[in-house]
């Protein structure tokens, strides 16, 4: 009826208004988040699927606001990108994770490959490569112990991206294409990118649930291997997924099956348990 239509509109508009207000509030609060020590980094292990040994970890930023509670990066990273705060936040995450990684190495754990997410905006910032090299020399982390995860959205500017990737390669850090398969990059673009790894998006891994096979996942893995790239699977939640991935030739995986992202202290305890320290 007419009345309910009108009510729907009111509800919708109120909802819209509260979404806008929430976003405005987060924008304001995010400006102070670093300074007020509200950000932290969690680490999720990357596991060799055959041997189950930890080969690396992905750094994932967390924001805990004293009144608003935990705010997901899915919500605040886009806001950070829109406001340009991503440069500062991304640099903070990179430095924090490199310091932590070096500390684990200094404690005697075998060196792990640290993966850090880099947003397209950060990647295209003209100071990006200098920031990466200065953080590496500051923290004394070996460049080949760092991997940057970028998404396919960077290929919107292919020439520029290739030149940045070449500079990063010269520094000695590794690069991975994150959420692989969800973007729109063509195969010819993939061939041109000087990268080391593709990380298959969780949406593809989800197709392997309850032991079902996926010609698509099999083909993506073969594509990566044929291009001499490392192939990592994200979002593995069951051992049947892990089994099929191994069979398809994927050697490294990440997901709740092995561990959720955990804070540095818990990650240290995990390493302690594994290496009996
Ligand atoms: P992403 O880079 O694809 O990271 C993987 C996300 O999947 C993480 O969510 C992780 O907690 C989650 N995940 C891992 N394994 C599983 C699993 O088995 N099942 C399920 N359901 N989820 C799993 P998170 O930490 O909430 O991060 C979400 C996204 O936010 C990330 O997606 C990334 O795009 C962005 N992000 C997080 N930290 C940073 C950062 O430091 N910088 C930038 N630029 N983006 C970040
Ligand atoms: Ca990632
Ligand atoms: Ca991902
Ligand atoms: Ca993903």
TrEMBL record:
EAL domain location: 23-275
Top-rank taxon, per record: Bacteria
Record GO terms (molecular function): cyclic-guanylate-specific phosphodiesterase activity
Alphabetical UniProt keywords: Membrane, Transmembrane, Transmembrane helix
Protein's recorded name: GGDEF-domain containing protein
Source organism (scientific name): Exiguobacterium oxidotolerans
């Amino acid at each position: 009826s007419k009345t309910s239509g009108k009510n729907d509109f009111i509800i919708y508009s109120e909802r819209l208004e509260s979404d806008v207000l929430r976003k405005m509030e987060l924008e304001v609060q995010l400006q102070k988040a670093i300074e007020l020590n509200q950000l932290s980094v969690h680490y999720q292990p990357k596991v060799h699927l055959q041997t189950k040994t930890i080969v690396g970890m992905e750094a994932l930023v967390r924001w805990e606001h004293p009144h608003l509670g935990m705010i997901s990066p899915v919500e605040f990273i886009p806001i950070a990108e829109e406001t340009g705060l991503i440069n500062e936040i991304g640099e903070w995450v990179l430095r924090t994770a490199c310091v932590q990684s070096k500390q684990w190495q200094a404690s005697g754990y075998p060196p792990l490959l640290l993966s850090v997410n880099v947003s397209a905006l950060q990647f295209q910032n003209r100071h990006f490569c200098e920031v990466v090299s200065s953080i590496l020399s500051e923290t004394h982390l070996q460049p080949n112990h760092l991997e940057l995860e970028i998404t396919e959205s960077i290929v919107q500017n292919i020439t520029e991206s290739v030149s940045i990737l070449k500079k990063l390669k010269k520094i000695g850090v590794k690069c991975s294409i994150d959420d692989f398969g969800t973007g729109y990059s063509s195969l010819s673009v993939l061939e041109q990118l000087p990268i080391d790894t593709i990380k298959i998006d969780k949406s593809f891994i989800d197709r392997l649930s309850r032991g079902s096979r996926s010609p698509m996942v099999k083909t993506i893995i073969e594509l990566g291997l044929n291009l001499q790239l490392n192939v990592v699977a994200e979002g593995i939640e069951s051992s049947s997924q892990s089994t099929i991935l191994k069979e398809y030739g994927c050697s490294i995986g990440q997901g709740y099956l092995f561990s959720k992202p955990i804070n540095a202290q818990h990650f240290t305890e995990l390493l302690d348990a594994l290496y009996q320290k």
